[in-house]
Every structure is written in structure tokens, then in C-alpha cells.
Amino acid sequence: MTSSFQPAPRPQPTSAPAVVANQLIKHFGDIEVLKGVSLEVPEGSVTSIIGASGSGKSTLLRCMNLLERPDQGELAIADEAIRFTRNPQGGITGLDRRQLQRLRAKVAMVFQQFNLWPHLTVLGNVIEAPMRVKGLSRKQATALGEHYLERVGMADRRDAYPAFLSGGQQQRVAIGRALAMEPRLLLFDEPTSALDPERVNEVLGVIRGLADEGRTMLLVTHEMHFAREVSDQLVFLNQGHIAAEGTPEDVFDDPRCRQFMAPAA
Length: 265
Ligand code: ADP
Ligand code: MG
Hints:
Keywords: ATP-binding, Cell membrane, Membrane, Nucleotide-binding, Transport. This protein is of the alpha/beta class. The chain has helices at residues 57-64, 97-105, 122-132, 138-151, 167-179, 197-212, 224-230, 248-253, 255-261; strands at residues 17-28, 31-42, 46-50, 72-77, 80-86, 92-93, 107-110, 185-189, 217-220, 233-238, 241-246.
């Protein structure tokens, strides 16, 4: 099927950061899970976050699209900047609804457990947010959805329900769904950790293709070889602190990371 859909042009790579997080702090109850995390992701580049379980990787990603709200710090995505502060009553200020919506529309996330809607078809999953959040008509959203399903190699399963797909296929649909929002930043939280080993490569292949296209991405992964291969920047998170950051070579050679890396070497 041909469609008149034209994907949105992506910003050209520049040295300007697409994402800046400055001194993000996040508590759950009395526990400080992020202890002042600062991070820059240049436009068109891939940053991978590695670290032990419980070190705050998912919380950091979830703060990036405001699934979690930081207690303190600053976050800027493209031209949308937000400063978080605790008010004296213990609540958090720094966000109005419209700003929240604008920021969320710039960021899309792919989860470990795919999180597809089971009652919607593959195409239904992909067109839902473009219709609801971006206000596209069903026809427009369908053209866009078909384009991005093609991109992840799932166009021929557009009418299938998630339960009839393998984990790898479901994750590729979830990536198509994220792309259909045409976000400035793509977040991946351990996108292959729930997959059978023989399904890992088909998903890594899609992510590698997106990296080669110059998409701006922040990726949490335990696939060390993959992280090393696709990342421009690597961040090692340890107990809510960035313990090391730099090129993959720098970080892999850092003695603080050696112990963590050893099992994967
Ligand atoms: P990682 O992704 O690196 O494994 P997480 O960001 O999921 O780490 O978790 C970091 C810490 O925050 C853990 O101690 C975890 O138990 C805690 N935590 C995460 N989410 C919540 C939550 N919603 N409520 C309370 N504690 C949480
Ligand atoms: Mg996690």
C-alpha cells in the first residue's frame, strides 16, 4: 500500500544538547534514589546508562519523560526547560499541565515489558497516541503508523493482536509506537531483558538502525557489547550517582566499572 505520509524531518546533528538534566534529585519516601544526576545528550547521539540493579537507572529514565517527577533539579528537552523545587509544604512545584504535555510529546519510551495494549491490534497500538496526543485524524495516524510499522518490519502484522506475537515482535511494535510520536528523544529501558535469547538480536538490530539514522536516544541496557558498539557516550550509575561517564572506551577502562563489567566480559 502506498501512502502520502511524509515523516517529520529530524533536526540535523549539532553540538547542542537535545537533553540536559541538571542535578536531578528524586526520593521515594526517605530514600534518595537519584542524588543529583547531571547528564547531557547531544542531538543525534546515543547515550547508554549501565549500572547494577537498584542503582536508579529506571528512575532516571522515568524522570526524563516525567513518569516520575524529580524533587529538585532542572530538565531541558529541546526548547522546553523545567526547574523542579520543593515547596515548604513538601509538594513539588515547577510544572503546569500544558508544559507537562509539551514535554511528554517530545519524549517516547520503550519498556522492558513492551506494555502494548492487549485489546488493540498492532496498528491500533501505534495510532492511539498520535490521534489522542497529537490530534491526528484516524486516516492521518494510519498513514503514519504504517510508515513506522514498515520501519520496524511489522507492517504485515498490522491487524494482529499482541498476544499472537512473539516478544521480539511485540517489542518491535512498541518501538514503532514510540517512533510514531516523532519524538525528539527516545528512551529505552532494558528493551531486550524480557526476551528469549533468540529474539534479542532482532530488537537490537532495529535499535542499531535508529542509532545509525542519528536518532537521539537514551538507553538502559545490560547488553554490554551492544552498548559499547552503538553508544557515543556511556554513563555508569552507582547508587544514584554517576560514578563514571565518557566514551565507551573510557568507561569500560575505568577501574570503578571493571568489577561491574567483569561478568559480561
Ligand atoms: P534500576 O532501574 O537501576 O534497577 P530503579 O530506578 O528501578 O533502579 O530503582 C532504584 C531504587 O528506587 C530501588 O531501591 C527501588 O526499590 C526504588 N524504587 C523505584 N521505584 C520506586 C517506587 N515507585 N516506590 C518506591 N521505591 C522505588
Ligand atoms: Mg530498571
